[in-house]
Design a protein that fits this description.
By secondary structure, the protein is an alpha+beta fold. The protein has one domain. The chain has one helix and four strands; from the N terminus they run ββββα. Strands 1-2-3-4 form a four-stranded antiparallel sheet. The longest helix is centred in the last third of the chain and has 12 residues. The protein is globular and about 25 Å long. 2% of the residues are buried. It comes from Lipingzhangella rawalii. InterPro entries: DUF397. This is DUF397 domain-containing protein.
Length: 61
Amino acid sequence: MLNQDWTKSSYSQRGESNCVECRTDTGRVFLRDSQHPAHGNLTLSLPEWQAFLRAVREGEV
C-alpha cells in the first residue's frame, strides 16, 4: 500500500513534544521527527520494520 503523506504516531496525540511521523512506500517505511522534519528520515525495509515491531512487542527493545 502506498501512502505518500506523513502520519503522526497515535501516541503523539497526547500533547507531548516528542513526535514520530511515518510514511510508507512500496516495501519501505520512512520515519522522521515531526519537530524537525528537515533533518532527514530513517528508511527501513518492510522486513526490518516488521522485525523492529516484533522486538518491541516481545519486550526486547
